[in-house]
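Long-time lurker, first post. I've been practising inverse folding by hand and with some scripts of my own, and I keep getting stuck on stretches where the structure tokens seem ambiguous. Below is the full token string for one chain I'm working on. Before anyone asks, I'm not after the true native sequence, just a reasonable design that respects the backbone. If someone could post their per-position residues I'd love to compare against what I wrote down in my notebook.
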């Protein structure tokens, strides 16, 4: 049982009722530090955004960020695109049930081909680019799809992501660490970006005013190990651990929450992920 099947199993449980889906989104927001950074970036973007913004959620996943953005303003129109049919169907069903399907929709799209000329005020891409080989093509499509004053916000693993470090720092334990890497990032085409690399690629695509900062510093990395890595490893051994999971989090999560909060207070010289913001002009 790998990482994505675990996420799908959780998704099936929380898809049964809208209130369970909302609860699932809340859990993701609490557990995943990237959500803290992404939501903060979205709130900052909103301060200067058009009241009737058009938004592309590029790689919408479970739709948690589309849901959050839909709550930021009733005048935001959001299109979430995905390559996984079951997630598209689940998201459309959920937003229909909560009567938001007129302004929040989901459809299939390959980001290497998806391009809408000057249509969006914001493009959000969370944990997507590490899965796409033709990343410059996607950045060019983002650039074309944004309005002249549009913004792209990207969250993606950095070149210092934990599993990448393990592969290089523990050559003598290569077999174990390589298996661990495949367990967590089996669908990735790259371990992560160096800040200069992703900045250069975005500028090549036409973007200006590109800012890149590390997230998941030391506090965040420890929190991720406690709240995500250990449970996923154990669930990979046996799904029976689902029964014990609530008790585990009662003990562990207060520490993880504090560490995540500390992580957001500082600029990090290195970290396991990047938060990128770029303007078209």
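-- Answer (accepted) --
I ran through it position by position. Result:
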């Amino acid at each position: 049982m790998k990482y994505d099947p675990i996420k799908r199993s959780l998704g099936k449980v929380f898809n049964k009722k809208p209130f369970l889906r909302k609860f699932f989104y809340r859990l993701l927001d609490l557990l995943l530090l990237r959500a803290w950074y992404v939501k903060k970036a979205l709130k900052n973007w909103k301060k200067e955004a058009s009241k009737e913004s058009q938004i592309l959620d590029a790689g919408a996943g479970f739709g948690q960020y589309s849901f959050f953005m839909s709550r930021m303003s009733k005048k935001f129109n959001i299109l979430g695109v995905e390559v996984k049919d079951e997630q598209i169907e689940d998201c459309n069903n959920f937003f229909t049930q909560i009567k938001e399907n007129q302004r929040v929709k989901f459809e299939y799209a390959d980001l290497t081909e998806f391009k809408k000329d000057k249509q969006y005020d914001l493009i959000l891409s969370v944990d997507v680019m590490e899965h796409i080989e033709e990343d410059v093509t996607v950045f060019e499509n983002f650039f074309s799809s944004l309005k002249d004053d549009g913004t792209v916000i990207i969250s993606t693993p950095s070149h210092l992501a934990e599993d990448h470090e393990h592969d290089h720092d523990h050559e003598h334990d290569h077999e174990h660490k390589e298996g661990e890497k495949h367990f967590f990032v089996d669908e990735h085409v790259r371990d992560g970006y160096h800040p200069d690399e992703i900045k250069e690629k975005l500028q090549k695509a036409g973007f200006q005013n590109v800012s890149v900062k590390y997230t998941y510093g030391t506090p965040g990395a420890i929190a991720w190990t406690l709240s995500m890595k250990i449970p996923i490893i154990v669930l990979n051994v046996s799904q029976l651990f689902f029964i014990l999971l609530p008790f585990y989090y009662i003990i562990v999560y207060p520490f993880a929450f504090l560490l995540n909060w500390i992580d957001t207070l500082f600029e990090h010289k290195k970290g396991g992920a990047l938060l990128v913001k770029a303007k078209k002009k």
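A couple of notes from the structure itself: The chain is about 50% helix and 20% strand. The radius of gyration is 19 Å. Happy to go over any region you disagree with.
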